[in-house]
Write a structure and sequence with these properties.
Layout (H helix, E strand, L loop, with lengths): L2 H5 L3 H24 L5 E3 L29 E5 L9 H7 L2 E2 L2 E2 L2 E4 L6 E3 L7 H6 L4 E3 L3 E11 L5 E3 L4 E3 L24 E5 L9 H4 L16 E9 L4 H7 L1 H6 L2 H28 L5
Antiparallel strand pairs: 1-2, 2-12, 3-4, 5-8, 5-12, 6-7, 8-9, 8-11, 9-10
Length: 284
């Protein structure tokens, strides 16, 4: 379509086309930056929220800075050398989303899903055998520490140079007080934990995968990426349509900010245009 043909299109068609081009460009740029597709995820639960948590300042009205239900978060591909744990971040003064260390997105025990025709089948093979594939939802939690599981059954935390020879990992700083030790680890990896008041202990102590197995330390191959940046509130649109119970559980302030943002995005251009039409020519 040449330039003259474009000029013949109705104004609404040209504006719609321009909007689609901008959205496409944004997605391409975020894909280049993150190295992942899709380049962002919608936060579906409140496990990283800081509300009513004595460990964190109470979020402001906009809730910008923490990860809340309904936020869109960029997921940047990462190697082990890129990820800073809570323990290392505390030593270096490195913070992300209101606390020390990086927030990572991972699959529990590396499971992307399970098949009704056999737990060991991947999605492609499951479809071939007419099985029902149940996808796993990745977890977005903070990397608290790296634990090395040694052949003699002991655990070692290199960030703080601590060894636990009795097969019990105890460190209250990462949610493992003496009364709730972490045991039964079979592989080295990251200890992960949500920020919310409902996540007092690491995932490896309290969570299960789709097969009902305890979550082991997160290995680099299980990681989708690390969280980088956020587009607050707009993921609530998806939750409103597909997960109304999660939408209802989102902070009230976030739902109000979504409404304010939508009104601004929709009405703002018309207000600006009308103002220009009324006041712009008078300046000539």
């Amino acid at each position: 379509m040449d330039l003259e043909a474009l000029k013949q299109l109705p104004p609404w068609a040209r504006e719609l086309g321009s909007a689609l081009l901008v959205v496409s460009a944004v997605f391409m740029l975020t894909w280049v930056y993150t190295g992942n597709w899709p380049p962002m995820v919608v936060i579906e639960s409140g496990s990283m929220e800081h509300d009513d948590n004595p460990l964190y300042p109470e979020p402001g009205f906009t809730h910008i800075g923490a990860i809340d239900t309904g936020d869109l978060v960029l997921v940047k591909s990462a190697e082990r050398s890129d990820i800073v744990t809570y323990l290392t971040g505390k030593q270096q003064g490195y913070e992300r989303y209101g606390d020390y260390g990086d927030v990572i997105i991972y699959y529990k025990n590396g499971l992307r899903g399970v098949c009704s025709a056999g737990a060991s089948l991947d999605e492609t093979e499951c479809n071939r055998q007419d099985g029902e594939w149940t996808p796993a939802t990745p977890v977005i939690h903070r990397a608290m520490a790296w634990v090395e599981v040694r052949d003699n059954g002991s655990y070692y935390l290199p960030e703080v140079d601590m060894e636990f020879a009795n097969g019990k990992l105890v460190l209250a700083e990462i949610g493992l007080p003496p009364g709730a030790p972490l045991t039964g680890l079979t592989q080295s990896g990251y200890i992960t934990k949500g920020d919310s008041v409902g996540n007092r202990h690491p995932d490896q102590l309290t969570h299960r995968d789709l097969l009902g197995q305890s979550v082991q330390p997160v290995q680099p191959g299980d990681i989708v990426g690390m969280a980088r940046g956020e587009l607050p509130w707009f993921g609530l649109i998806k939750l409103k349509l597909t997960q109304p119970e999660n939408y209802a559980a989102a902070p009230e302030e976030c739902r109000q900010m979504l409404l304010i943002s939508l009104v601004t995005v929709i009405i703002g251009p018309f207000v600006i245009q009308r103002g220009w039409e009324q006041w712009g020519p008078r300046r000539k």
